[in-house]
Amino acid sequence: MTLRILILAGFVLLLAGCALPGQGLETQNLFADEAARERALKIADVSVKSGNYLSAIEIYQKLLSKNKFDEDVLYALGMTYLKAGAPQEAVAVFENMEAAAQEDIRPLLGLGRANLYLYRPEAAAIYFSKARELKPENIEILSGLAIAEDMAGNHDGARKLYAAALKIAPENMGIRNNAALSYLMAGEYETAVETLSKLAFTPKSTPQIRQNLAMAYGLAGDEAAAVRIARLDLDAETARNNLKFYNLIRRMKDRDLLRRYLLGPRPGGIGAT
Q: Which helix (H) or strand (E) holds 193?
């Protein structure tokens, strides 16, 4: 299968799934008191982790029918909408949460992430910047703001933010990967290859990071290296097809197309570090 680049934690469009234990029980028993609320949240969490987003959303909505100002449930519902590929619904939830929350960065983070999903870098930057005023050294905020800058084409500004985040969390592979991709989007392919090569073969590496390196080689014109790296995780046909796409981007010299490919909405797309 084609392996797309994972920038941050993913959104998956699949909403349906098998029922989990307890979901066929009388639902009112799940929401009767605080202990029942905790049990319901655990079931919802398992549902999210297994991709059963509709089941989790239903549980969160029933909990909110008991207490519409439950900020923990509101945040979980908004994040589940994002993972389910429903950013507009997430925006509505986070806006309601922001109106009620005091000194809480979560709705601002959620609105920033939702606007990244919608490819609205200016709006995303506004929310991340507001959150940064409350938590200036939060790596999720710094990373989200950096992605917004990369999305807008301000790669120098993005790198400064990645550098600030890496001072706080120098071993964070997601941020290091994103910082390398910033060079790729700027057309600095050799630097991107050098930076990604330092990540691609470490014990903490992932298939996504290796495929990012394959793309960097492809955009730099080293087709043999691109295919060699791609074949570490992909079948031969998929590796060849990816190379054709990289060659197309290289010939077109379309930076916006590359940014949209790397950062635009898709299954397994933008979320959090």
A: helix 189-200
